[in-house]
């Protein structure tokens, strides 16, 4: 399908997610969240790896935000109170807390490192490609959560409902902010940058699936 003049660039990311949605829905970890029962060890693996991931993700976001806007990030994404509350649900079910995640001794998984290296390399090569590589993080969660709630896969009685609900709004928080950065930057991007950006977004989307999956691998 031809991209129309009125279509924002981030709509093309949505189409890529349309193609990958089923892989997320078939994922064992996502299915466990959907059932409301997740092994606490699997959740611990997820929140530990996510802690390591976000630690190296935020500097990339800060650099790319500056590259696109010429300004420093005003509010850091991890200062979002609602996100903190949503995250707390996962920590509780994993029988851990933020201090333990910071101080415990555990190794980065191969998937975590590969995903981080993909984004770091993309960011070194080109700001626009880097931006698209970090966009999957907020966008894919929002797309997935929005779908699962809308389709009734996650209902209010699910213990993880608040976590999904937090991410489900495209016009909120970090997802909204990065979407507008992507659409702003796309106005100045060349066709080649756009093609490479979409490929980097798709690769990150594949890493997002693998990132969930690793929690239930042994
Ligand atoms: C790996 C990963 N992707 C996306 C999000 C959403 O913020 C997250 N916390 N972690």
From TrEMBL:
It comes from the Bacteria. It catalyses: 4-amino-5-aminomethyl-2-methylpyrimidine + H2O = 4-amino-5-hydroxymethyl-2-methylpyrimidine + NH4(+); thiamine + H2O = 5-(2-hydroxyethyl)-4-methylthiazole + 4-amino-5-hydroxymethyl-2-methylpyrimidine + H(+). Belongs to the TenA family. Homotetramer. One of its GO terms (molecular function) is phosphomethylpyrimidine kinase activity. Residues 28-217 form the Thiaminase-2/PQQC domain. Pathway: Cofactor biosynthesis; thiamine diphosphate biosynthesis. Keywords: Thiamine biosynthesis, Transferase. Gene3D superfamilies: Heme oxygenase-like (1.20.910.10). Its EC number is 3.5.99.2. It is an enzyme of class 3 (hydrolase). The keyword Transferase applies. It comes from Eupransor demetentiae. This is Aminopyrimidine aminohydrolase.
């Amino acid at each position: 399908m031809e991209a129309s003049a009125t279509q924002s660039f981030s709509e093309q990311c949505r189409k890529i997610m349309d193609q990958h949605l089923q892989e997320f829905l078939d994922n064992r970890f996502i299915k466990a969240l959907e059932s409301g029962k997740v092994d606490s060890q699997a959740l611990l693996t997820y929140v530990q790896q996510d802690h390591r991931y976000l630690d190296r993700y935020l500097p990339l976001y800060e650099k790319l935000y500056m590259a696109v806007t010429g300004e420093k990030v005003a509010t850091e994404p991890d200062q979002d109170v609602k996100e903190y509350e949503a995250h707390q649900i996962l920590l509780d079910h994993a029988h851990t807390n933020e201090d333990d995640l910071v101080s415990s001794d555990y190794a980065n998984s191969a998937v975590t490192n590969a995903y981080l290296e993909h984004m770091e390399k993309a960011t070194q090569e080109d700001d626009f490609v880097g931006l698209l590589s970090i966009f999957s993080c907020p966008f894919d969660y929002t797309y997935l959560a929005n779908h699962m709630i809308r389709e009734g896969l996650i209902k209010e009685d699910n213990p993880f409902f608040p976590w999904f609900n937090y991410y489900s709004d495209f016009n909120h928080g970090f997802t909204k902010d990065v979407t507008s950065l992507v659409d702003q930057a796309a106005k100045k991007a060349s066709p080649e940058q756009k093609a490479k950006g979409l490929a980097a977004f798709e690769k990150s989307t594949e890493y997002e699936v693998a990132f969930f999956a690793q929690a239930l691998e042994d």
